[in-house]
């Protein structure tokens, strides 16, 4: 519980910094449609102005993004990511089913490549970034009532149904934990 409170406090602080940063950027003449880049620390940055904020973790063999922004901003998000790294996008972690969190999934995943491990003969990577989310996000995205249907390539390939998911530090160098936050906005919301 103590860890969750610390992570939540950190997330709130980052959100507050983002609001201040965007206000500062606007005051310095940034155009309304620009994607702002806030350097948080080391290899972690936040993209702002793409719908929901997008966290970008760069590492030697790739990029992990938390959320993908709105579909209409996907090209600009990709261009902003390319200013941080030219490596392939390996992972997209969706924290919500909201369109401003999943809208860019298809575009960003298409230019990515997964890192495969184990005994996968002849494969160094597979086509497309791996999309990760709570199983309720996948259920909402693939419900028959969703019109138009969300392309399968934009939906999570890896889901979790427990309180949390720990991603390996082998590739990222940084530990990544995803916490299910069922009392948040939707029943599939996560905190990374």
Written account of the structure:
The chain has 192 residues and is of the alpha/beta class. Helix content is 30%, strand content 27%. It has helices at 2-27, 74-84, 99-102, 105-110, 135-141, 169-172; strands at 36-41, 44-48, 54-59, 62-66, 89-93, 113-115, 125-127, 130-134, 158-160, 164-167, 176-180, 190-191. It is globular and about 40 Å long.
Furnish the topology, listing elements before pairings.
Layout: H1 2-27, E1 36-41, E2 44-48, E3 54-59, E4 62-66, H2 74-84, E5 89-93, H3 99-102, H4 105-110, E6 113-115, E7 125-127, E8 130-134, H5 135-141, E9 158-160, E10 164-167, H6 169-172, E11 176-180, E12 190-191
Parallel strand pairs: 4-5, 5-8, 8-9
Antiparallel strand pairs: 1-2, 2-3, 3-4, 6-7, 10-11, 11-12
Distance between the termini: 15 Å
Q: Let me know the average pLDDT.
A: 78
- How are strands sequenced across the largest beta sheet? 1-2-3-4-5-8-9
How many DSSP H or I helices?
6
Largest sheet: 7 strands, mixed
Share of residues in helices: 25-40%
Whole-angstrom Rg: 16 Å
Number of strands: 12
By helix and strand content, what is the structural category? alpha/beta
Q: Give helix and strand order, one letter per element, not per position.
A: HEEEEHEHHEEEHEEHEE
Principal-axes shape call:
globular
Percent of sequence in beta strands:
25-35%
* Poorly predicted segments: 1-33, 118-125
